[in-house]
Amino acid sequence: MDIYCVDTSSFIEMKKYPKDIFPNLWQNIEKLCKDRRLIAPDEVKKEIEKGDDDLKKWIKSENIKKIFIEPDESQFKHVKKILKKHNFLSESGKDGLNADPWLIALAIKKMNEQQENLFKHEYIVVTEESKVKNNKIPYVCKDYNIECINLIELFRNEGWKF
Q1: What are phi and psi of 4, to 5 degrees?
Q2: Model-level pTM?
């Protein structure tokens, strides 16, 4: 069963699919959240909270706010290693935040944890960043053997049709 580590860019992309026109999409996303199959680092929440829109309100709802995972010591260590090797990820965004290394570190941490677990999950990073540029999330994911897809690919992966 796949578990998706979602980037801010993909949450923003979801806004292109209004709830009143794509209600099944939002129900499916919320089910992934409820089932803990859609997660994100706390840094993604902080980026979303910089906005003042429906997405900011949505992430505060009961089932959704649980998907955001606060960093722990393991994640800090992974971020440090990632930034040492891929220092371009240390550049902060226009709001002073950059969740990118935290997103990748979360996927690495979760994959390491699951090696000790009987239940095997594939941790997949979901981002709208370009797969052809060597200074973006997909490039770093490839370096760590983490599958990286975009939102439409997540829909296909789950077999959703609208």
Answers
A1: -105, 125
A2: 0.91
The CA distance from 93 to 18, in Å, is 26
Range of the domain at 140: 2-158
Domain of 20: which CATH number?
3.40.50.1010
Between the CA of residue 14 and those of 40, 78, 109, 113, what are the distances in Å?
A: 15, 28, 26, 29
Number of domain units in the chain: 1
Query: What 3 state SS string does the chain have?
Result: CEEEEECHHHHHHHCCCCCCCCHHHHHHHHHHHHCCCEEEEHHHHHHHHCCCCHHHHHCCCHHHHCCEECCCHHHHHHHHHHHHHCHHHHCCCCCCCCCHHHHHHHHHHHHHHHCCCCCCCEEEEECCCCCCCCCCHHHHHHHCCCCEECHHHHHHHHCCCC
Using a 10 angstrom Cβ sphere, with 0-12 exposed, 13-18 middle and 19 or more buried, the burial of residue 17 is middle
Q: How do residues 31-57 score in pLDDT, each as one tens digit?
A: 999 999 999 999 999 999 998 889 999
